[in-house]
Each structure stands twice: as C-alpha cells, then as structure tokens.
Amino acid sequence: MTRPPESTPAIDVRGFSFAIEKKAILRDVTFSVMPGEYLSIVGPNGAGKTTLLRCIDRIYAGGTGQIAVFGRPLADYRQKDLARRVSYVPQAGGRVSPFTVGQFVLMGRYPYLSPFTSIGAEDRRAAREALRVTGTDEFADRTLDTLSGGERQKVYIAAALAQGADALLLDEPTTFLDYRHQVEIRDLLARVSAAGTTIVAVTHDVNRAALDSHRIVAICQGTVVFCGTPRELMTADVLRRIYATELLLVDHPGTGLPVIVPGAPAEGPP
Hints:
Elements: E1 11-20, E2 23-33, E3 38-42, H1 49-56, E4 64-69, E5 72-73, H2 79-83, E6 86-89, H3 101-106, H4 121-134, H5 149-162, E7 167-171, H6 179-194, E8 198-202, H7 206-212, E9 215-220, E10 223-228, H8 230-233, H9 236-243, E11 248-251, E12 258-261
Parallel strand pairs: 3-8, 3-9, 6-7, 7-8
Antiparallel strand pairs: 1-2, 1-4, 4-5, 9-10, 11-12
Helix pairs in contact: 4-5, 5-6
C-alpha cells in the first residue's frame, strides 16, 4: 500500500509510559500515524497493545509523556470532542448489549447529543449510512445477541462509523472469526481506509498486518521495538527479535511480500 502524504499526524505518541497498580505496562512509547494511514500494531501476548489503544482513546487516563490527536494534546479534549475525532472498536467477544442493531448503531451518535437535544434527521442519516456501508442494514431490527461474532463485529464498526470519527482504533477486529467473516471485515476496513479514515488496528495476525497496512509498529514488553513498512518487518531477523522464535517465510504468490507459513514438525509428518 502507498503511504498517504505527510501532514500533521492524526495520532502522535511521544515518550508515553503507563502503569497499572504501579506495574509498568508501557515504557517510553513513541510513534505517529498520519491522516488516512492504516497502521497495525503487533507483538507478543501481554506486550501492552490493547492498553495503548485504550490510553489513546482515554479509556485509561493518566500516564506520562505526550499523546496528541490531530495536532491537539489529548489532555485538552473534552470526552465528547475526542469522540468526534477518535472511535474505539473493541473485540467482538464479551457481554452483549440487549439492543437491536439499529438502536446500537444510532447510539454511536452520542458525541453530538446532549440532555437537551433529541436524535435528529442527521443522526438517523449517519446511522443508516453506516449500516449500509457495513452491510448490516439487513438485520437492523435484530438484537445483538442473535448475531454471530462476525456479524456483531461489523455492527461495532458500523457504530464507530456512525460516530463520524476521523480515526478508528480497533482491538483484534478479526479474532475468533471464521475465514469468511475475516475476509469481510478486512475488505470493509480496506474500503474505510481508502475513503480517508485513519485506522490503527491491534492484531496477532502478522501476515494480515503486512498485507493490509501502510506501516506496522511492534511492541514487546511495553516498548516499541520496530516501526516501519511491511516489507521491512517481514524478515527472519526482525521477526525473531519481536517473537523470540524462528519463523518460516515464503513469498506471497499474489504480492511477492514475504509471509509466515507453518514450519514442518521436528520429526516430520506422522
């Protein structure tokens, strides 16, 4: 993918550190994401990837260092103003809200509402458009608990799009999904990215990160250990440094980019 032209970063993280109950989770994290860029964050389990997303969206408050969103310090945002710029999409698992799809997506308009205003025509238009773009309008009247994990993930993305934010933060958007729904989510995110929305996605799927992203950041033990292009990432030496194991790479038949494939068993096939 061709990286968008340089401008003020959509998200700029500088020397950021964060601890939970005095345990350091993130240490001196520095990277930036440009407007319209698709950036993936990879790394081992427990590296701090999800914590980083939640700090950017201020689900977790505090920390030291600096985070700026579209050129403005995170601390200067009111929460509703921040929600107009950045939307967080959690994993599809966990507790399911007892709302219909249509109701849930319409709730994405909360940054534009107040106790003294009601849902208006523009709010309903934005929700309908988000349902259409994500292909979830066909089950707008169904409750979330009747959907599959893949369908529910698309609904979460629809709510984020209805929110009208300029950047999406996604936490493992295809985890636990079958191949069909993985492809549908990736195609959806590619369309959203092509339309100009900034995307920051945490993922354990290094191959998809390499094939889908403009750039990739790798985090180990709370520290950035790599930031660069997919081709720069997909080398045996770099991957060994990130995952502390040997990985087998072959060239993708469609793109020529190296991808990870399963290695043979130590004793060969049974």
